[in-house]
Amino acid sequence: MATPGPGTGFSHPPLQGAARFWGTVALSTATFMNVLDSSIANVSLPAIAGDLGVSPNQGAWVVTSFGVANAIAVPLTGWLSQRFGQVRLFTLSVLLFVLASWLCGLAPNMPTLIAMRAFQGFVAGPMMPLAQTLLLSSYPPAMAGMAMAMWAMTTLVAPVLGPLLGGWITDNAHWGWIFYINVPVGIGAAFITWTIFKKRESPRQKLPIDTVGLTLLVLAVGALQIMLDRGKEVDWFHSAEIITLAAVAGIAGLFFVAWELTDKHPVVELRLLKLRNFRWAAICLAVAYSLFIGNLVLFPLWLQQFMGYTSTDAGMMLAPVGIFAMLLSPVVGKNIQKFDPRSLATFSFVMFSLVLWMRSHFNTQADFATIMLPTIVQGIAVAFFFIPLSTLTLSGIAPASLPSASGLSTFMRILGGSFGTSITITLWQDRAAMHHAQLAEMVNLNNPAATAAISGFAGMGMSPTQGLASINRLIDQQAFTLAANDIFLGSALIFLLLIPIIWLSKPLKAPPYSGPAAPPADAAGAH
Q1: 3 state DSSP class of 451
Q2: pLDDT of the residue at 515
Q3: Which of 41, 162, 188, 435 is a Cys-bridge partner for 479, taking CB atoms 3.0 to 4.6 Å apart?
Q4: How far is CA 260 from the centre of its chain?
Q5: What totals of helices (H) and strands (E) does the chain contain, helices first?
Q6: What is the per-residue pLDDT for 425?
Q7: CATH number of the domain at 17-209+265-434+477-502, out of 1.20.810.10, 3.40.50.1980, 3.40.50.300, 1.20.1250.20?
Q8: HEC string of 469-524?
């Protein structure tokens, strides 16, 4: 969470009356737009992929490209804020986000859309932390908690509306409108923000930037993400392309870690991982978030491709996650100090495991109620997920280092979500291929069920070739359903394995860390 500090704009008196109201609306709207775009495309992937002539699995790049670029941009927020000023940077970030959204909607092919989504994710990097900082500067300290609660609600409402809105638009208009809707919203938010906050600009100064670290970060993360997304298409390490990408990611990653641990102004403060609480809580947050996002992409894909759901119906299936999280999160936040955050996180992991275990028993005959029930339970799990883990991550961190800690935690979480999506889709395809081969072996003349099915199709006027094609489609449906069940069950087990890891941390009240202070521009507030 953003923390006041020198030069963050807190030297200005709080806003009053209409200015504070409209300032809150503008900042929250920009945040809402940002978070909405991280989920609105999930249920639209089959439609986007079909329109652009690629497979739905390749369409997952639309999600991962945004996340990776966003993760890379977050650590730069502090330096950019110092260089250009918080208000200028925030306003420019929103306007560039609008431009990127418009270009996404106009994309004529998948490579262009992926490039524009990466651009959109990168320019969105400063929006979340700066929205927190500017909002806190608008309220007196006594109302800071209420201000953050109001802001946080937007991050919970957006995931509810994202799949619903994305599904409705996809079913009733061109998918480009899931991006075009950002244009009027973003322009309005930028105009109001600049009008109200331009006289409250933060001081500017030139600071050194870790160019080497940033370059190594882009190389390592970019090569690894492309490798994960391309591996299945080119048969993994049988391809020179994948071997080259793996080598680049590995070498750049090792040099990045070595450089960041020794540089005076690191772009990512890796030394925070020496702290017991931060290390284990941040790792659990990143892994759990990767599982959460990976399954959040897989679930609507399975519903639309193999269960006959429309984009709107798939969005409806995801809505309860956000609704229950929105209702319960304020209660968790209000009472977080009364409980051990490790206990609350444990409860969340158990609930996630239960949800995924329930989904691992789905079959092709599952009805609406059967599919909806785990989603309702998942909303409870989400409410007890982010707040306790974020609290534990920052437990014992010195105030001057809170922005760096938030930045590193956010970086790990966003990156985990992108990697989780790629890994989940790849495993789904691999497991489906295995199940398809096993099921196809049963289709032979010695199998009474297979011969009966072929005879049945023949009785419907189909040729033997058409009958076998129909059987193959049924096998595909079964294979991908069984593969999804495998992913759900594996994810449930990993959530259970995270429970002992979170208890390796120990909540602290005294700040033990006195490392390099983060840039006062609040490098990266988490959301």
Answers
A1: helix
A2: 43
A3: 435
A4: 25
A5: 21, 0
A6: 86
A7: 1.20.1250.20
A8: HHHHHHHHHHHHHHHHHHHHHHHHHHHHHHHHHHCCCCCCCCCCCCCCCCCCCCCC
